[in-house]
């Protein structure tokens, strides 16, 4: 793969460009009436100066939200709309510079402002590079429910400079790698082997990101409105989300990717049971996930609590729990109803691993 | 035209059905998990019982907003989302039963709730039947600006029963007819002649509505995102909106259509000037509009105030005023920059007519 790649998605391009020259060019060609950059308090400090410098920006408006998922709310969006009013019209563009929280809320804010103004994502975390910034989902939390308000709306383009990853805490990088592992498992053996081979090689991170994005676009471009194929991207997330909520409840919050890695182990275990595969069918993947992502600690009595989160997952259809299962690498299955007893078994399996 | 027509738009169908049997059928086929009906305080009283009766609804949730454009706000939408949360999921459907205010805010509310749930319009005013309920624009006002937040999102279907018009004040009917007049002028001589012929015939109102909707869909289906062809629908609205705002400011608010009728007279006058047509080129249309819609009263000194509204119209591109002009019936022109002196002249012409 080239070091200066452009991925052509169905709806927009993704530019890999360390010095963001292509963004500079894009803005020049766009002939926008005004340019607004949205950051959180971290990216305002660590990333905005770089972007302004690389793109040689003279005139722009800067909007900033406090860092943290808890600010991805309708109130924050309202605050942004108020600030957008005096500095923008239908020909303005919003650049979302940050992690998934910023690309989600920025995308939402732009997509309904004056019935939609252009927006661009410049993701600054590994997770947002390979996940939130591609696929066209935008959203904010509402009344304590995640992503209850949102749109399906594509950015005009995505620009990726891995230089931004340098300011990222180690845990955040590891968290992003868990979503990469998910993409690899879903994409098949070849991608998985490549993923394992490169896992610790920092000089191949761009290639890894590119592979992950190509895979995600392959899925989402065919299922823009999340009606079919795209559901597979929830692999690891039914149990993962429950573990994440449980950790939040017990005041030991963990990065999203750690929960997903644990969720994948459980859902691989369940896959073996439901598809009558030998117990060690996914052994290599399970051991790799166990060895490379921090273990989530819970005791047997706490499993009931985790199960109650699984039972109330918003991805359930009515009361039916349908985690994404795998028949083999690259072969997801999205229509098996799983019972809570088996989910419990999988959590015990993970706990004792 | 048949008395029981269905118009097939590109994105949805419009059913003409006095007893709403087709809505009953549609809901049965839709297999929705829950049914929510949005009304305002007027339509809750005058229209909801009829809809419930005709469709033989046993289980539904009812949401209600106070009547009046001033409640078409983000706050109202937030209130609706809070009420939707406990009674709906992604497979729910929202029925918007009311005028343009209800179809606009209901469409917006549904289009971003859980990234979009299905919604259906059952317009109850003449204006909303021929205008707001078709074309796929949704929106709420924000920070005192009209429709600042919104989406382009199509209803699953539109159901029209002219029985609802029976509860409508006379002024509201006349207001709707002004938008019909606009469609007729834009559609060409044949439609205009038909419009004039049927203007006062109450027994042909369904045919008139059908003609107006077919025309609007012809335009909007080709320009979903308001980038080109659709702009012609602003005919009469540059000056019309200014007159509407002026009347609001002077505490003598008028129905939207009255302002549009006056705006059309002014913009026909300007068309004659800019396209070097003889002064009586649009005489028939101007006299008809003058004779059939209430005159808006303002004196010469107030014209400056009206002009300031024209100058700040959100449809302007930068400082350029571009009302839709007509070269002849059915031949709109959307790219002439008009100077304020001519706008002033047109307002004086209208005043002395």
Describe this entry's structure for a reader.
Two copies of one chain form a homodimer. Chain A is α/β, with parallel strands linked by helices. In chain A, helix 6 (126-132) runs parallel beside helix 9 and helix 11 (256-274) crosses helix 14. A seven-stranded mixed sheet of chain A has the order 1-2-9-6-5-3-4. Chain A is built from 14 helices and eleven strands. Chain A has helices spanning 21-30, 41-46, 48-54, 74-84, 100-112, 126-132, 170-187, 189-198, 205-220, 237-249, 256-274, 283-292, 303-311, 340-352, and strands at 6-8, 13-16, 35-40, 61-65, 93-98, 118-123, 140-142, 145-149, 157-160, 325-328, 331-333. Chain A has two domains: 6-168, Rossmann fold; 172-352, Up-down Bundle (Dehydroquinate synthase-like, alpha domain), CATH 1.20.1090. In chain A, a hairpin with a 4-residue loop joins strand 1 and strand 2 (13-16).
Short overview:
2 copies of one chain form a homodimer. Chain A has 353 residues and is of the alpha/beta class.
- Class by helix and strand content of chain A? alpha/beta
Q: How confident overall, as mean pLDDT of chain A? A: 94
Tally of separate domains of chain A: 2
Side by side, the strands of the main sheet of chain A go 1-2-9-6-5-3-4
Helical stretch tally of chain A: 14
Biggest interface found: A-B, 25 and 25 residues
Task: Say what oligomer this is.
Answer: homodimer
Which spans of chain A have pLDDT < 50 for at least 5 consecutive residues? none
């Amino acid at each position: 793969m080239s070091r200066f790649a452009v991925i052509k998605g169905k709806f927009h391009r993704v530019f890999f460009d360390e010095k963001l020259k292509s963004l500079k060019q894009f803005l020049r060609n766009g002939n926008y009436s005004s340019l607004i950059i949205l950051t959180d308090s971290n990216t305002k400090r660590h990333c905005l100066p770089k972007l302004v410098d690389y793109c040689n920006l003279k005139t722009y408006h800067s909007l900033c939200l406090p860092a943290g998922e808890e600010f991805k709310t309708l109130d924050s969006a309202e605050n942004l709309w108020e600030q957008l009013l005096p500095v923008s019209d239908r020909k303005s563009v919003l650049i979302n510079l940050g992690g998934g929280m910023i690309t989600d809320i920025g995308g939402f804010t732009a997509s309904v402002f004056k019935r939609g103004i252009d927006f661009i994502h410049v993701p600054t975390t590994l997770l947002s590079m390979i996940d939130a910034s591609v696929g066209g989902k935008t959203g904010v939390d509402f009344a304590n429910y995640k992503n209850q308000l949102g749109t399906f709306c594509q950015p005009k383009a995505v620009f990726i400079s891995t230089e931004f990853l340098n300011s990222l805490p180690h845990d955040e990088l590891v968290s992003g790698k868990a979503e990469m592992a998910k993409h690899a498992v879903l994409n098949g053996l070849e991608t998985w082997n490549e993923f394992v081979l490169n896992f610790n090689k920092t000089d191949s991170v761009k290639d890894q990101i590119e592979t992950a994005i190509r895979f995600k676009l392959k899925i989402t471009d065919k299922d823009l409105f999340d009606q079919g194929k795209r559901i597979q991207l929830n692999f690891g997330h039914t149990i993962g989300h429950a573990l994440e909520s449980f950790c939040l409840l017990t005041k030991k919050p963990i990065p999203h990717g750690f929960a997903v890695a644990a969720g994948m182990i459980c859902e691989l275990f369940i896959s073996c049971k439901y598809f009558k595969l030998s117990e060690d069918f996914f052994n290599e993947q399970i051991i790799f996930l166990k060895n490379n992502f921090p273990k989530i600690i819970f005791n047997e009595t706490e499993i009931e609590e985790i199960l109650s989160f699984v039972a109330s997952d918003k991805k359930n259809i009515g009361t039916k729990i349908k985690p994404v299962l795998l028949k083999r690498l690259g072969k997801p299955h999205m229509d098996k109803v799983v019972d809570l007893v088996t989910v419990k078994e999988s959590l015990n399996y993970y706990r004792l691993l």
